[in-house]
Design brief:
The structure is a single chain. The protein has 3 helices and 7 strands. The protein is α+β, with helices and mostly antiparallel strands and 153 residues long. The strands form 2 sheets. A 5-stranded antiparallel sheet has the order 1-7-6-5-4, with helices on both faces. A two-stranded antiparallel sheet has the order 2-3. Strand 6 (124-132) and strand 7 form a beta hairpin. The protein is elongated, with a radius of gyration of 18 Å. It comes from Meganyctiphanes norvegica (Northern krill). Residues 2-143 form the Reverse transcriptase Ty1/copia-type domain.
């Protein structure tokens, strides 16, 4: 058996008034749309689960200090460079990172659902991704898989 541990901040103690804490997640309709278009184009649907997603988010833009767990407590405080689980804005920072990385690869965000993304090549739909926190549901051509999905995973 593996012993696993996760550092979790006490985000409920934070002042949320100046933080953007919302993070778009996909709607049922977006998932249905992706599955319907995948079926009509003859594409298979695939999933990706990102491990330790919140630790891969953007660098934190504010000062956050954390008291270390008792196993590592040497009397000092830790200053965070990135968000960790438990912070109020961790989900938003992760979403912003995903959105930025997809945009850099030429993927466009749906104007109706911010967690649904399309990839076109010469105005032809080549692939789609729907994001729900750290889970991706995607479908598309081999070109989409190699140029987008493999780049973000």
């Amino acid at each position: 058996s593996k012993i696993k541990a996760r550092l979790v901040a006490r985000g409920f103690e934070e002042d949320k008034s100046k933080l953007q804490t919302d993070s778009p997640t996909c709607s049922r309709e977006s998932v249905r749309l992706l599955i319907t278009l995948a079926s009509s184009w003859g594409w298979k649907c695939h999933t990706v689960d990102v491990q330790a997603a919140y630790l891969q988010g953007n660098a934190i833009s504010r000062l956050v200090f954390l008291k270390p767990p008792k196993e590592f407590d040497d009397g000092s405080l830790w200053q965070l460079n990135k968000t960790v689980y438990g912070l109020c804005d961790a989900a938003r920072e992760w979403y912003d990172k995903v959105s930025f990385e997809l945009s850099a690869l030429g993927v466009t965000k749906c104007s109706v659902d911010n967690s649904l993304f399309f990839w076109h090549v010469q105005e032809v739909l080549e692939g789609m991704v729907v994001v729900h926190v750290d889970d991706f549901l995607w479908c598309g051509t081999d070109k989409f898989k190699s140029q987008v999905i493999e780049e973000i995973t």
